[in-house]
From TrEMBL:
Enzyme class, broadest EC rank: transferase
Family, as annotated: Belongs to the FPP/GGPP synthase family.
UniProt-listed PROSITE patterns: POLYPRENYL_SYNTHASE_1 (PS00723), POLYPRENYL_SYNTHASE_2 (PS00444)
Keyword Ligase: no
Cofactor(s) the protein requires to work: Mg(2+)
Molecular functions per Gene Ontology: (2E,6E)-farnesyl diphosphate synthase activity; metal ion binding
Name of the featured protein: Farnesyl diphosphate synthase
GO biological process: terpenoid biosynthetic process
InterPro entries membership: Isoprenoid_synthase_dom_sf, Polyprenyl_synt, Polyprenyl_synt_CS
EC number(s) per entry: 2.5.1.10
Keywords: Isoprene biosynthesis, Magnesium, Metal-binding, Transferase
Pfam family of the protein (one): polyprenyl_synt
Length: 316
């Protein structure tokens, strides 16, 4: 039986919206369009667009108002996966049980797919919100999504992750060595802080953005957005810790991608630094904290609570 994560009734409308968003303007080569669809419509939990709609509901908004933002953040997520899988990055050949885009097509096409999806995300937000009264919300949504996807968050987190596992030589990089957050001989505590920073940016940034986008299009109050931000920080970090745990404990069939790569590449992970029991305990404490943050929504936040429970169950 499939675990319930609180977005099951959202999925048909999310899938339909994603398919509708795959009608690209004249001039897009047919094979590129096929590759974009392959990336964006790949089987998945649709967690990030689900978070957008969860937040909208919790804040008393309408699902249809937030759907363009749900599509936009899934486009950013899909682009990030396509680029992360590239040989120059994480070098993965399997994603969600299927060949990655650069394997199914080719590497130049995969790079361009990521480029296109990133641009389409922002274009979609604007195209689907043309009424004058929605313009302030669209501007704020663009700001939130661009910051989350930018060099200080998603991209910067991926960069530091690659530096940490040796894929990028931090000494030879363009940035001065003293500006790098990595130490030459870091202590265990500094490794943990570095790992937390990477995870909060790589995974947590889009979780936070998804929930904030939903709140924006619901016209949420500042305290509601703040509570969702705290929830997102804890949930996003717990989610990544559990992903690290599964790389240690799950099999390839269950995960739909290669496992054990983190150990082979010497990547910083919570299980690697803390051991499996302590990593599970940390994930558990983060989920407990996340649940407390959404208490402010009362019964309207039931989906957020269910999702938090699901994230923790993945580690068992």
């Amino acid at each position: 039986m499939t675990e319930q994560i609180g977005i099951e009734d959202f999925l048909p409308s999310i899938e339909e919206a994603l398919k509708e968003a795959c009608c690209f303007e004249q001039g897009c080569p047919s094979r590129l369009a096929e590759a974009i669809r392959y990336a964006l419509l790949a089987p998945g939990k649709r967690l990030r667009p689900g978070l957008v709609l969860m937040a909208t509901e919790a804040c008393g908004g309408r699902r249809d108002d937030a759907m363009p933002a749900a599509v936009a953040i899934e486009m950013i997520h899909a682009y990030s996966l396509v680029h992360d899988d590239l040989p120059a990055m994480d070098d993965d050949d399997l994603r969600r049980g299927r060949p990655t885009v650069h394997v199914a097509f080719d590497e130049p096409t995969a790079i361009l797919v990521g480029d296109a999806l990133q641009a389409e995300a922002f274009s979609h937000l604007v195209r689907c919100n043309t009424s004058v009264d929605r313009i302030p919300r669209v501007f704020e949504a663009i700001r939130v999504l661009s910051v989350a996807a930018g060099p200080g968050h998603l991209v910067g987190g991926q960069y530091d992750d690659l530096v940490a596992d040796g894929s990028i030589d931090s000494v030879a990089s363009a940035a001065p060595l003293e500006s790098s957050p990595l130490e030459s001989s870091p202590s265990e505590s500094s490794k943990l802080e570095k790992l937390k920073s990477i995870h909060r940016r790589k995974t947590g940034a889009l979780f936070s953005a998804a929930l904030d986008l939903g709140a924006i299009f619901a016209g949420a109050k500042a305290e509601q957005r703040s509570a969702l931000g705290r929830y997102a920080r804890d949930l996003g970090l717990a989610f990544q810790i559990v992903d690290d745990l599964l790389d240690f404990t799950a099999d390839e069939k269950t995960m739909g991608k290669r496992v054990g790569k983190d150990v082979q590449r010497g990547k910083l992970t919570y299980p690697g630094l803390l051991g499996l029991p302590a990593a599970r305990d940390k994930a558990s404490r983060l989920i407990q904290s996340a649940r407390q943050h959404v208490g402010v929504f009362g019964s309207s936040g039931w989906r957020l609570t269910m999702l938090a429970d699901y994230v923790l169950k993945r580690s068992v």
